Amino acid sequence: MPRPILATIDISALRHNLRIAKARAPGARIWAVVKSNAYGHGLARAIRGFADADGLALIEPDYAMQLRELGWQKPILLLEGFFDMADLDIVTAARLEVTVHRVEQIAMLEAFLAMQTVTKVNIHLKMNSGMNRLGFTPDAFRAAHARLRALQGVGDITLMTHLANADDPLNARLPLQQQIATFERGIAGLAGDRSVANSAVDLMHPELRSDWVRPGVMLYGATPGGGSAKSFGLRPAMTLSSQIIGIQHIAAGEAVGYGSRFISATPMIVGVVACGYADGYPRHAPTGTPVIVDGVRTETVGRVSMDMFSVDLTNVPGAQVGSQVLLWGDGLSVDEVAHAAGTIGYELLCAVAARVPFVEA
Amino acid sequence: MPRPILATIDISALRHNLRIAKARAPGARIWAVVKSNAYGHGLARAIRGFADADGLALIEPDYAMQLRELGWQKPILLLEGFFDMADLDIVTAARLEVTVHRVEQIAMLEAFLAMQTVTKVNIHLKMNSGMNRLGFTPDAFRAAHARLRALQGVGDITLMTHLANADDPLNARLPLQQQIATFERGIAGLAGDRSVANSAVDLMHPELRSDWVRPGVMLYGATPGGGSAKSFGLRPAMTLSSQIIGIQHIAAGEAVGYGSRFISATPMIVGVVACGYADGYPRHAPTGTPVIVDGVRTETVGRVSMDMFSVDLTNVPGAQVGSQVLLWGDGLSVDEVAHAAGTIGYELLCAVAARVPFVEA
């Protein structure tokens, strides 16, 4: 038997959240983003949950091949494109669309396509419109476009960028509209679909024209910012739960956990949860991070250990060894736990460890 | 092809670190701790690296069974014991030794052992000597011991506790010596081996008598505190490396990454590394976290994204797309990276994600 910890995936929530993504972007086509093993939810489950998406997008060439093996027939997009020449065999074998974000990739494509005449590869040409991560500068974008357009083996070229502050549009250092304006200037006069929108744009900026939207975290029921997932009508697809495996009755003044960082002010009942940072629960979660035990909201106490952490059971009547513990899911959003730990729901969803058993709701 | 990121495991480092653990604890027997998939290094590799250990200790009953299937013949200890009755079938089938830390486990053992007469189960009876996590209070310990001793099917009973502050022995809230004194009082007059020492005790407190030592993080070449791993002669067993996949030349005043949290003071060359928090790199790592590119020490810039982060290449001559990036390993300890991110090496080692390919050095 595995330990009591369990991740439960609700495929119907994936479907529901995809419907919301679509409803928010009428007329646009949807790349459901499934990188990082579908944000920790599993590729096979993502295929079922996102069957109505127009395509799946991810960054891992090996996982893209898995999606084909699992039966996904519709388009697949590699969001970082290919990393070396060998990946181009996968691109053609698995009929992948690829992002091109640097000139070396164009050179590889030229060399690869010169050797064959069968394939038409669809390209998503990425502009660095101010995030300064991947992509061509606006000045270099046009030349890259022309060079790709000249290749016999290139099919559609979608005009793509990525926004640094879609969740914070008035960011003083790089306002959303500045990135959009840079993008518009860079693509002026170029034909092709536009791909701009991530989850935050889909939820909060329907005014931005994007022929393709690329929702990620929202599909899993967490928020990209700008409001709670629930306020957008999203449903959590993952529930992480465990059990109480030990109880200590402690006197006032006693310490709990590594470093003895928590000292009780009064007598307390402290429960030990079979969940630690090696399960993916954040070690940064401080005392006071919310947890639900037997349906009662309480909080963590002391340092998170590798395999356990402690919770205050003083006001959870009837709590005992075996009591159910909700780490996140319906009733306690992953975003709230992440916020308490100084991070974002994205990180927690992706971090659930291989030793945690997964089941479907 | 997978992405360029790669974890390389050096089995000889595991062996070397085990020899150090043994040399520090002359006469003691060694449980090499391999929970959490051998702190992310893999069970099969741990079996080879720790062949000279007296036993392997972990918390996952299903992984314990895997250790037997992989050919480990010597003792295996479940550090949290069994979670329910069904686990006891694994305990006997896989000849596991078990920690007993709560009275419910004794009741399960009584019920289970009453049904058969073949097995002798070795018990590690755990005392809560002040950490207030798992274990019997000193007062309850003696009764638990007597109840187990009365069982026909119980073999050896080892007297066990776990220290909250072995890395910080003068901790004002719970000094090391206070925990030891509590333990001594609780076991006074009881026969049996003592199991007290974790990595920090093994490295820093050889004066504490422990018949069994339970080194964990030190075996993987990271420090439990109290000094650098290197200062103890330990060698890192895991190297996490990747490559530069994009480069941006930015002007003074430009922003990098999500939230535009980093603004360049001068013109800079910024590289994008194929490694993000969904690979296990900590999202808490702030600008300035150390990274080595092409052998040159530099630092991160801006927010860590899910699949990438940026590094300053301004002073890394010749750095280009494809340049090798050392995230941690020989030359940059996981402890240093963890410290920069406000956590400990343990968390980073365990967090390396399933999508990262592993190879052996």
In short:
Chains A, B: Pathway: Amino-acid biosynthesis; D-alanine biosynthesis; D-alanine from L-alanine: step 1/1. The first copy, chain A, is of the alpha/beta class and 361 residues long. Chain A folds into two domains: 11-222, Alanine racemase (TIM Barrel, Alpha-Beta Barrel); 238-360, Lyase, Ornithine Decarboxylase, Chain A, domain 1.
Give the distance, in angstroms, between the N- and C-terminal Cα atoms of chain A.
19 Å
What's the SSE pattern of chain A? Answer: EHEHHEHEHEHEHEHEHEEEEEEEEEHHE
Number of self-contained structural domains of chain A: 2
Low-confidence stretches of chain A: none
- Determine the number of helices of chain A (DSSP H or I, runs of at least 4 residues): 11
Trace the largest sheet of chain A across and list its strands: 2-3-4-5-6-7-8-9
What is the rounded Rg of chain A? 23 Å
The CATH superfamily name of the largest domain in chain A is: Alanine racemase
Question: What is the approximate shape of chain A?
Answer: elongated
Structural class assignment of chain A = alpha/beta
Mean pLDDT over the residues of chain A: 96
CATH class of the largest domain in chain A: Alpha Beta
> Strand-residue fraction of chain A?
15-25%
The oligomeric state is: homodimer
